[in-house]
Amino acid sequence: MKKVGKGLGVLTIAILAIGINVVGFKRTKENQQLQQVDQIAESIVSQKKQLSTLEEMIGKAYIDEKKEFLQPTLTKEIIDKIENNLARMKVSAEDFDVNAKALPDEVATFAQKKEDLQMEFNGIKKQFNLQSEILALFTNDTIDWQTVTNDVVLTTDVTEKQLNDLKDKLQAIEIPDWRANAEEYVSFAQAQFNRIQELNANFDEMLDNDTITESATYDRYYSVSESIAQVRNPEIKAQFLEQLDSVSQQLGMGSVY
């Protein structure tokens, strides 16, 4: 009987211990859930501020409320900053690392707002990148996108493919005034490119290993000379003038310098 009593005592103690552990586990779980709720509440406050900041940054990317032309002061650093801030926005249960049921309805509003801002930012980034690609066609430091000015100077390494790719990309842009101006700048580049190609073709026919051919006539010489005067890039113009000088001297007209 003593052994039975002792056994029951041990069993009772074990049951009580299990009960205490279960209660303790429940309390721990409840505390963790409460902590999650507090963390989500704090995060929501933070997300509100972040959304407000992002909305302001995206709004400032444009020159006015029409949202057509970008600010001249917009830089890649600003673009990257907006992109990184958008990536850090928490708008889903997975972002918060909680069950979806634990998320307040307010978070769904954040998700939609983030999606809208993301779409708007994607358009800004595409427009900014296209501006950078067009600017890279020229030696100019900047371009006026609102008022087109034909003062651009083509660089020495522009290719036909580069120009055609830009034309194709611009076709997909639905910003009428900006697109028209961008296409006009590309047309300026194309015109300068075509002139350079035509001059190269002329000299290929007029000179063979630096010796003039039958194609090197006086009329053609004067026509080429006038065309070279229209070349804006000083480096490219100097190369053509050197070839023209060779033609001029062999035609008995003296040096062009």
TrEMBL record:
Keywords: Membrane, Transmembrane, Transmembrane helix. The chain crosses the membrane at residues 7-25. The keyword Membrane applies. This is MapZ extracellular domain-containing protein. It comes from Enterococcus eurekensis. The lineage of its organism: Bacteria, Bacillati, Bacillota, Bacilli, Lactobacillales.
